[in-house]
Amino acid sequence: MASAYRDNKLAATNYDIHDLIKKRWSPRAFSEKPIEPGLLRQLFDAARWAPSSYNEQPWRFVVATKNHQEEYDRMTQVLNKNNKRWAPNAPVLMLTLKKDQFDKNNTINKHAAHDLGQAVSYMTFEAMRHNIYLHQMAGILPDVARELFHIPEHYTPMTMIAAGYLGNPDMLPDDLQKKEVSGRSRLEIDEIVFRGQWDNPKRL
To answer: Which of 105, 124, 135, 139 is the most exposed place for a label (fewest CB within 10 A)?
Structure first.
């Protein structure tokens, strides 16, 4: 069962892209196996080497692991109702934040969210090297996060990430089990890439 549904999750790519990209997906069923602290730090080391506008590195992370239960329980309070159904299965939860202003002149950094996304992508593919899966969630309560974690002004909570090793889909509620084992799809290249001008149907 486990190998069958994992095979079903492999991306049906049109070209021979890297295997780490093909096998990446966002599970909801996580094993209880913890992520070793040194390996967890390795993931953040990958994240910090992502590119950013003016090298501002506007990403920040608040991390909680199950071996620090009080911190972990506090992190789960930031999840919305739907994500609370499954995300607390993961051994690691992390809140992502963006720094809203440039250090150099205190003006608004309009690219901070983009750069945070790049850092998370770097982390994601480093994680996949070690068969660690990340599930990114927009469903959080930012005001709760700001209060619980004493987040300073000019930093904005953006997403939550559940991280861990794959678990058994049978641990999930029935509706989520179906999502866990179903295949994946994406828009075709010609639906997202235009040649020379917007909505040009000509192929590259």
So the answer is: 105
